[in-house]
Amino acid sequence: MDMVADLGIHEALIWVMVTASLADRTVKDVELEQIDRIVDRLPVFEDFSGDVPRIVEGCAELLGREEGLDEILDRVGDALPARLHETAYALAVEVSAVDLAAPQEELRFLQMLEDRFELPKLAVAAIEHSARVRFRKAS
User: Fold this and answer.
1) Which of 88, 102, 109 has its CA nearest to residue 132?
2) Rounded to an integer, what is the distance from CA 111 to the centroid of its chain?
3) pLDDT per residue as tens digits for the range 20-48
4) How far apart are CA 136 and CA 139, in angstroms?
5) Which of 46, 23, 9 is nearest to 99 (CA)?
6) What is the pTM of this model?
7) Which of 25, 44, 79, 123 has the most crowded Cβ, counting Cβ within 10 A?
8) Phi/psi of residue 73, each to 5°?
9) How far is CA 37 from CA 32, 40, 52, 56, 98, in A?
10) Angle formed by the axes of helices 104-117 and 9-22, to 10°?
């Protein structure tokens, strides 16, 4: 993906997930697998035909730049309609929760998304609670 091109909705949602994963500077295999599962299964991606590895690579490259995180947040904010802000937050939480650990950097990124999208506190709490319940282990 050309870094100057407008970001599409699908790419923006993938960038949110990748940024959540990379927030602690480490991408775990389980997080990449979760991103693939999400893109393969969720209705919001049903008409997506892009190249996920290339989108991940482009996002990671941008995140490595000075001011990269701010640019990602700006571009994602421009690309996503308000009706998908909670969806983007939920996808970031899904990726953060999949390994049952959310380092401080991931929590900080989630807070930045919440602030950028001006998400209602009740919606944020519900999304986070839902992820905790889904990823809870039996023992």
Assistant:
1) 102
2) 12
3) 998 877 777 888 899 999 999 999 999 99
4) 9
5) 23
6) 0.90
7) 79
8) -60, -40
9) 9, 5, 11, 14, 11
10) 150
